[in-house]
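notes to self, project folder thing:

trying the whole complex as one job this time. last attempt i did each chain seperately and stitching them together was a nightmare. two parts in total, labels are on each line so i dont mix them up again. if this works i'll redo the older ones the same way
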Amino acid sequence: MELAILTTLAGIVEYAVPVLFAAIGENITEKAGITNLSVNGTIILAAMGGFVAALITDSILLGFIVGALIGAAVAAIVAFSSITLKQSQVAIGFILALLCRDLAYFLGAPYTNKPGIFLSKVPIPGLVDIPVVGPVLFNHSLVVYASYLFIIAAYLFMFKTRPGLMLQGIGERPAAAFARGANVKGLRYFYTILGGALVGLAGPMYSLAVKIGWAGQLSGLDGIGWIALAITIFGGWNPLKVALGAYLFGGLQQLGITLQSTTNIPIQILQAAPFPLMIFTLLLVNVGRAEWVERELAAMPEKPRKALTKILRALRTSPPASLGVPFENE
Amino acid sequence: MPEEPQIRQSPAILKRSTWIDFGIRFSAVILALVFTSIILGIAKAQPLEAFGSILKGAFGSTIKFTSVVASWVPLVIATSGLLFTFTAGLWNIGMEGQIITGAVFTVGAFRFLDGTGLDPIIVILLAFIAGAMGGIFWALLPGLMKIYGGVNEIFGGLGLNFVAKTIAIWLIFGPWKRPGVASGSGTEWIDVKFRLPFLEGTNLSPVILIIAIFIVLFTAIMLKGTHFGLRLKAIGKNDKAAYLLGIPTTRYFLLAFGICGLFAGVAGAILVTSKQYSLIPDAGFGYGFLGLLVAMLVNYHAIWAPIVAIFFAALSIGNTELQYIGLNSYFAGVLQGFLVLFVVLVDGIRKRLLKKR
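result (full assembly):
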């Protein structure tokens, strides 16, 4: 296969990684019944914080730890506000999304465009020599390899382990989980903060590995968090499908980079390309539930109706039943 | 994501202990100031010096103060529109894109009507109507997608914000590019005769001030004193119950979006005719997002919107002065963000305490 195609494919795999962590992190949080809408700001603040921490301490590892801690701290505010105080999850998340972004741009100003350290590529010996698969999957930095394990681990945890089933329980039917002795509020705190830490990791994954450096508002990170939130919905709260959504997004971004070098379309237009697509996919996965669609379907002749119903069913996703609903121990 | 009750308090609690209530609320302001001071400390700046230069930047001269009022106008208009959607229990996060679309339609109308020989005042009026139409159009989209497509208005609106900005950029670099070379700094300026005149020695057009005052009054009366406002509120509290009681919820949802979009479009037209005079990529200047913060702060009390908005406008304008002490202009966003954050948190704590007592 041509080298250019392999490079592009490898780029997709790499670009998908931060979004993948953020979207699966949010997936875990939402499974527990909490929506953390602050993702966009969290990623930007963690990207700045992680970059600066790594720059000052000369330690990449510390950069990632700081990123995760920032994400966990922001998520803790979301958890306190929505679980303990029962304030609107949308309100607190949206406020934090704006606040964290502005904080990052304000505090990060002195570090803009400073040369820092970054994660280098570690080709996996042996595997990298496999034709096609090797250069695409096994010629990356460590975060990319971590993402492969993470997707599988998140899926297995959520659907194949006891704590994973409990996680689903507190998001679907918290009262039943409580009756069986689950500490619903405590678990919701735990998973909100855990999910937030994973979202936070996405920040340094950009600034230290995928989109190296910190360039303030020109870092091009604004908007990615909202996409991550949409990918969670698109993926139907299933880590495998969420990962697929992240790779589609990575593909779009990579396409943008390729188009930008070959045509003279302004970069801002290419950067916005995923958003109409996001609206479109959200329409696709949701429209099957709309009343008028059911009415129209009922009026159709049998054959096309069956086919259409099948397609809409396959596309349809439904959120955890108690997503966004506060829980009170009775 | 399902709808949920928003930051809303019961009026009974308000009456019971107004003073304690005021004290608790005020502590949110103190907390916000403490936290922003810490942030300033991290940025190695003197908090007092920073706050002082913001005050100077906002009220230091007639020009500066009238700039604050000129910035209050689109902000309070955006907030007023958002109060309609908030009351109906909707999160119109697409406000920013609706303002941008308003600006796009306004500039489009000027381009279309310039040279037709119509009286400039008629042209300005038509451009405002075009802007309003643009805003309504862009606001109905998330409404329709919510009702007929099951797409949560938050995501619909967010996506449409980016799409609106992209359309503006495409126009700036493409069909509406300046003669010669296209540039991200915007389209060609509209003719001088289409610009709203300022009061002598100020940065403020009296026309936009009158529009803003009219919209603020209209909003307060509609939401507090009419059946329409009551029904909207009923839908916001529980749309299924409201529907069973015979309120046509779909129509009211779309009306709320439409009114919000109308105001957004007018704000876009105001920004074109009295501030930017052209179409730029950020034609909304962030007023849509800022309006959301103000609307959350005033918490359904339309009366408070103008006061909170003037404070936020003063911060945003005064903030530009910070560059002279080596800080960037994201500081206003930090302070505004902390303020709303602590108001929401303190409000939650207050409700919890009152419940326990």
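what i see at first glance: The mean pLDDT of chain A is 89.
need to look closer tmrw
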